[in-house]
Write a structure and sequence with these properties.
single chain; alpha+beta; FAD/NAD(P)-binding domain; Elongation Factor Tu (Ef-tu), domain 3; 3 domains; six-stranded antiparallel barrel; 12 helices; flavoprotein; FAD/NAD-bd_sf; FAD; Aminoacetone oxidase family FAD-binding enzyme; BaiN-like_dom_sf
């Protein structure tokens, strides 16, 4: 049997290793556009590689049908992943947050050990090769690169990802190939990404960072609330809370819905507690400029914007701020709301949403329901995970199930 795997990322590599371990007699060619496998693995976790998570359910995933992932999570849970890592010599560092990293704290060690196992198993790596088309003739698959044809494959796995991080040569070729075999797909969109806002003072707040609670409103209805770092930028907002909520925001944007967020800079205080704190500050620093008094609880940049936003003269003394103005400032600090207009795009996204529709894929084997012996795994499918190792775990799990299926006659 001769198998082709398109894409040398997490899903493709674990599929190749799993299949070859089950049947040493099969021939496997793994194709990748880059000079080496695992480019996205190397970039994950800022080079540290947030490789998995010990607490995973379908609630950590978004897509047309998130329950599609349940079989993969059942068969390849964290314990199974840990055992796989041990089998290639990779020891894990499990954090109290449930995030999992290599004990070496380097993504490079993950890729090196995966590559070592491919070599040990005799899996053929065909690198710097972009597969642009696949045809099926007399039950055999024919792969076409930009300048060469590869013939006589019995089975093919598409694990080439989507467009997130195009600087790593990411493409949507997997979707194009899927459509050749009558597959449909949901529109792709950048996920885990900074958001562009219509907030008129965004440039004045550039660099301001504060742990806050971010609420997401879709068509004016509150849909999600996440607490974490918010970083103001020249284009809008970023930070961990924004990346996390972006998954739901961008999906709604892709459906042309009205999307807005609200920021509460003091989620641990009630409005009355915050009001009392401000009143005390203004009394204590009554002869100081109002923005100086405000800088006792927020950054100077934010203090100045709060005054401008509420039409309060920045040179006004703290003692001259009236009760109505203090309440207006409190409202801004607990419900600073603005529309989301766009994202930072695929180049700055950690993952892609959308992709090949999962109702056309068998969730136990990851084989196409439309074309026998054609398989899909990883990001090319319409499943995207939260930040925290969930996307990589789906890649490992779906690749493992596909790998098991590839060797079955």
């Amino acid at each position: 049997m001769k198998i082709a795997i398109i894409g040398g990322g997490a899903a493709g590599v674990i599929a190749a290793i799993t299949a070859k371990r089950l049947n040493r007699k099969i021939d496997i060619d793994i194709f990748d556009i880059n000079k080496g496998i695992g480019k996205k693995i190397l970039a994950s976790g800022n080079g540290r590689c947030n490789i998995s998570n010990t607490s995973i359910t379908q609630d950590n995933y978004i897509g047309e049908n998130p329950s599609f992932i349940n079989q993969a999570l059942k068969e390849f849970d964290f314990k199974a992943f840990e055992n796989f890592c041990k089998s290639i010599g990779l020891i894990l560092d499990i954090k109290s947050s449930c995030k999992v990293y290599p004990l070496s704290n380097e993504a490079k060690s993950v890729v090196n050990l995966l590559e070592n196992e491919l070599i040990n198993l005799g899996i053929n790596q065909i690198l710097e090769t972009k597969i642009v088309d696949i045809k099926k003739n007399n039950e055999k698959f024919i792969l076409q690169s930009l300048n060469k044809e590869f013939n006589n494959y019995d089975k093919v796995l598409i694990s080439s990802g989507l467009q997130a991080a195009p600087q790593l040569n990411s493409t949507e070729d997997g979707i194009s190939i899927a459509t050749n075999f009558k597959h449909s797909f949901n529109p792709t969109y950048p996920s885990l990404v900074g958001l562009h806002t219509n907030f008129e003072f965004k440039s004045k707040l550039q660099g301001v960072k504060k742990e806050s609670t971010v609420s997401l409103y879709i068509d004016k209805q509150k849909e999600k609330e996440i607490t974490g770092d918010v970083l103001f930028t020249k284009y809008g907002v970023s930070g961990f809370a924004i990346l996390d909520i972006s998954q739901y925001a961008v999906y709604a944007l892709s459906l042309y819905q009205d999307v807005a967020i609200s920021i509460n800079f003091f989620p641990n205080l009630t409005k009355n507690e915050l009001l009392g704190t401000l009143e005390n500050l203004f009394k204590t620093l009554k002869h100081s400029d109002a923005y100086i008094a405000l800088s006792g609880i927020v950054s100077r940049k934010l203090a100045l914007v709060l005054l401008e936003l509420n039409n309060i003269d920045k040179e006004l003394k703290a003692k001259d701020i009236n009760a109505k103005q203090i309440r207006a400032i409190v409202n801004s600090l607990t419900n600073l709301r603005f529309k989301i207009e766009d994202t930072q795009g695929f180049k700055h996204a950690e993952a892609s949403g959308g992709g090949v529709r999962t109702d056309e894929i068998d969730n136990k084997t990851y084989e196409s329901k439309l074309c026998k012996n054609l398989y899909f795994a990883g990001e090319v499918l319409d499943i995207v995970g939260n930040r925290g190792g969930y996307n990589l775990h789906f890649a490992w799990a779906s690749g493992y199930l596909a790998g098991k299926s590839l060797v079955k006659l």
